[in-house]
Amino acid sequence: MSYSNFFKIIIILTIVFTICIGLLKPKMHTSVMVQNSEYGISNPDIEMTNAIQTIPTMSTEQVKNTVKKADSISVANLNTKNADNVVKEPVNAKSVSNTKVTANVLTQKPVVKKEKTAVKPVTSTVKTEIQMEEEIVWNKWRSDIQNQLMKDVQLPIIPQGTVFKFQFDVDKYGRISNVKTWSLTNSFTPYAIQYIAPVIKSYQGRELLNFPSGSNRTVTTVEGGWRIGKVSKYSTPNDYHDTEKVVK
Question: Which letter does DSSP use for residue 230 in this model?
Answer without folding.
Answer: S
